[in-house]
Write a structure and sequence with these properties.
By secondary structure, the protein is of the alpha/beta class. The protein is built from 15 helices and 8 strands. It has an 8-stranded parallel barrel, surrounded by 6 helices. Strand 1, helix 1 and strand 2 form a beta-alpha-beta unit. Helix 1 packs antiparallel against helix 12 and helix 3 packs parallel to helix 5. The relative contact order is 0.12.
Length: about 325
């Protein structure tokens, strides 16, 4: 099983739609939905995960599991129960976000300093959600101390989670290489035989990285994030299929732009396209050339003209369905 990671500010419904078209991704996890002291309306969930209005799947048919982030077990559970009425293909819980603003609000990775609270949140959600809806969690090795990984994984296991994704770095490590894959194997050894499905995450950029990660962690299942954004064919290659050439990536750009234009304010649209091209240039020289050409361009009309020249396709070739075209 190859999962597409949640990435706040980058991997949203638009990019999920585009990246799952190339194949190889078995499931996505959404960017987090923040839970405070409010029972959110349904539109708060469908705004972040519009796929919920499409059977919980991208256009390519790939399931999307919404992710909740919060520190109050009761509030998170009540919102999970409401989310469950939308029939998601599972509910994920965030114990890994390293963002300072999130951690300062007692969300994400900072909760790993309190394994008992992590346990309470997962247990409350598992009890609030119907048994047929899987509950999963994503964690880092710790906040500053990676030695708490075993305690948190055990807390999540005993709370009844069905799956556990472990990002093989602490919050303090951020996204700096390396990822400490061997720690995932050590965590697995500390868990009982009846444990959640373990999924390894962190620093998987190539097929060789995936192979070494599996060997180091003992995990067959992987979650890829930045590697898939940079190389839309990565999951497909890991699954043993052919890589995705630039000629197959290029037609995805106007599809991406059309959906960005439907959801994003005009002044931010060019930035979104350049953000993705900036990642793609790690893998494709053609993306580097495109990024260089558009780096100083901010006018959407100029972007659209460039897309038409580069691809031979008008950017409005596929407008999002009404139920998916919700503004940010």
């Amino acid at each position: 099983m190859l999962l597409l990671a949640p990435m706040e500010g980058l991997l949203d419904a638009t990019l999920r739609d585009v990246l799952t078209r190339t194949g190889g991704v078995d499931r996505c996890t959404s960017e987090f939905i923040r839970i405070t002291q409010t029972l959110l309306p349904e539109r708060a969930f469908t705004r972040v995960v519009p796929e919920l209005l499409n059977g919980g799947r991208t256009r390519a048919g790939v399931p999307v599991r919404p992710q909740l982030l919060g520190s109050d077990p009761v509030c998170v559970a009540e919102n999970a129960a409401r989310l469950a009425t939308l029939n998601p293909p599972g509910i994920d819980l965030n114990f890994g976000c390293p963002a300072k603003t999130v951690n300062n609000s007692r969300g994400g990775a900072i909760l790993l300093d309190e394994p008992w609270l992590v346990h309470q949140i997962v247990r409350a959600v598992r009890r609030a959600v119907p048994a047929h809806i899987p509950v999963s969690a994503k964690m880092r090795l710790g906040y500053h101390d990676g030695g708490v990984a075993e305690a948190n994984a055990l807390a999540i296991t005993e709370a009844g989670a069905d799956e556990l994704v472990i990002h093989a770095r602490t919050k303090a490590h951020g996204y700096k290489p390396p990822a400490y894959w061997e720690r995932i194997a050590e965590v697995a050894q500390a868990l009982p035989a009846q444990r959640p499905v373990l999924i390894a995450n962190g620093e998987i950029w190539t097929v060789d990285d995936a192979r070494r990660c599996r060997e180091a962690t003992g995990c067959e299942h992987l979650m890829v994030g930045r590697g898939q954004v940079a190389d839309p064919g990565l999951a497909r290659e890991i699954a043993g299929q052919a890589p995705v050439p630039w000629a197959e990536v290029l037609p995805l750009l106007p599809l991406f732009w059309t959906q960005v234009s439907a959801r994003v304010e005009r002044r931010h649209r060019a930035g979104r396209l350049k953000q993705w091209l900036n990642s793609l240039r790690r893998r494709y020289p053609e993306a580097q050339a495109a990024f260089d050409e558009l780096r100083l361009v901010h006018d959407p009309a100029t972007i659209e003209a460039w897309l038409a020249r580069a691809t031979g396709v008008a950017a409005a070739v596929e407008a999002p369905p009404a139920e998916l075209a919700q503004p940010c």
